[in-house]
Amino acid sequence: MSKSAIVTGSTSGIGLGIANSLAAAGFNIMLNGFGDAAEIEKIKNEVASKHGVKTAYSPADISKPADIRKMVADTVEAFGSVDVLVNNAGIQFTANTEDFPDEKWDQIIAINLSGAFHGAKAVIPHFKKQGWGRIINIASAHGLVGSTHKVAYVAAKHGIIGMTKVVAIEAANDGVTCNAICPGWVLTPLVQKQVDARAAEHKISNEEAKRELLAEKEPSLKFTTPEELGALAVFLCSDAAANVRGQAWAMDGGWTAQ
Domains of the chain: which residue ranges? Predict the structure, then answer.
């Protein structure tokens, strides 16, 4: 029987890149995320036809534990099993700590950290029962180092790495691994908005704004791509990675090596 993967926040950006990579490796895919219904249907059909796998879509709100439990149950119903969980869904908001809105803190922690916990909690019993499973948490370079104005995001991503270690240790004898991927800058629509804002503020070209953004953090001066992150996720699901456990794997152009 073919294996199946849930990828949260997979209707665009990093999540969609990972979903496509896992589909190319033969995994059936449960997509999840917000967006236009027709566009999501198009994505679902494209992933299925391109890679010859089954796909489904869950509208689960990752800030709601009941929605997450239903998404896991729906995956088992659609594909016969759930074998991989990629906790990718996340949001961002920036402000000084003293100005950070309470509701934004709560929202970011709920989606970026608590959502990953509830997802892991829901899939682990299935993984243990079948003696195989992979949890991949998409953390961030900000799970390893801090940056100004990102108190909630940095706290959540540091928390994800701590959670990754605990789950990995607990499941060490159950055929289940749990690891985190820590991307640096990825040119998603969210990051492109930051580039556009920098270009407008400093009256420079978009390409110059990209270089400035990268130069502040990444010696490589290159964006990590969703496809590169997807390839790493596929490796972490492979037999070769069976003893990679509780790791925070940076793919950040040298950001955290400094």
Answer: 4-185+224-257, 187-223
- Please name every residue paired with 134 in a beta bridge, in sequence order, or none if there are none: 84, 177
The fold for domain 4-185+224-257 equals Rossmann fold (3.40.50)
Known catalytic membership, residue 57: no
- Active site residue: 57, 153, 185, 223, which one? 153
* Cα–Cα dist 250/144, whole Å: 9
User: Kind and range of the H or E element at 28?
Assistant: strand 28-32
For residue 220, what are its two tokens? 């490589």
Supply 53's token pair.
Answer: 């796998």
Could you read off the pLDDT of 120-159 as tens digits, one per residue? 999 999 999 999 999 999 999 999 999 999 999 999 999 9
Residue-wise DSSP of 134-169: EEEEE--GGGTS--TTBHHHHHHHHHHHHHHHHHHH
Measured distance CA(217)–CA(214) in Å, rounded = 6
Q: Is 236 exposed, middle or buried (0-12, 13-18, 19+ CB in 10 A)?
A: buried
